[in-house]
Amino acid sequence: MPRIVVVEDNPDLAFGLRNNLEIEGYEVDVAPDGPAGLAAVRAGAPDLVLLDLMLPGLDGFRVLKTLRDEGRQMPVLILTARGEEADKVRGLHLGADDYVTKPFGVLELLARVRALLRRAARDSAAAAPADAAAAPGVAGSTAAACARFGAVEIEPAARRVTRAGAEIPLAPLEYDLLQALVRRGGAVATRLDLLREVWGYSAAVVSRTVDTHIAELRRKLEEDPARPRHILTVRKVGYRLQP
């Protein structure tokens, strides 16, 4: 049974989240503030964290940064206030997997939770064969070829990205999104394609998270993020990678 930690200081919202998640079959722990949320995650290694950003004691940004600095890679779905675009960007920059904006629909939230848990399970299952392939004597036989565009080089075997020789740290979802664009060889990827492939979302989930992650990739990899030369927008469709 997947375990979820909900870090939310509004008792009514926390109760509703716990109730709906438990109906879906999840084991749920609720923490009312930042320090309690950190303690709950450290104590039980949950499969997913639902994290409000505006928390007493320790805000959600610091909770998230601490979790990622400690090497904890479980999916984190942040809860943000309506219209706070800067909060969404900052949360994704710190390593959140996605966000929902309050007030949100329960069905939408549950769909995102299911998709993020499926993705985490898929990535975990894929990691074992990859580790085996890296064993002495066989590593070179399965390693994917490096990809390049502009001054950027991608080393799939190490999940490493450099720009002009300097390593650029990417969050796991940022790296997967970049690879999804690379695999298309310059062809257009729609937002729905990317939501399905990278996040595991269905058409029922409406999200601007692709756009926010693309903005982060441009900030990290483009010489001038405001005038990108490589990660290009195809108006009303999606994105493509220009070598």
Automatic annotation (TrEMBL):
4-aspartylphosphate: residues bearing it: 52
PROSITE patterns membership: OMPR_PHOB, RESPONSE_REGULATORY
SUPFAM superfamilies named in the record: C-terminal effector domain of the bipartite response regulators, CheY-like
Cellular component terms (Gene Ontology): cytosol; protein-DNA complex
Response regulatory domain residues: 3-117
Domain called OmpR/PhoB-type: residue spans: 144-243
InterPro entries reported for this sequence: CheY-like_superfamily, OmpR/PhoB-type_DNA-bd, Sig_transdc_resp-reg_C-effctor, Sig_transdc_resp-reg_receiver, WalR-like, WH-like_DNA-bd_sf
Pfam families (UniProt xref): Response_reg, Trans_reg_C
GO MF, any single term: phosphorelay response regulator activity
DNA-binding region, residue range(s): 144-243
Keywords recorded for this protein, A-Z: DNA-binding, Phosphoprotein, Transcription, Transcription regulation, Two-component regulatory system
Single GO biological process annotation from the record: regulation of DNA-templated transcription
Annotated protein name in UniProt: DNA-binding response regulator
Primary gene name: kdpE_1
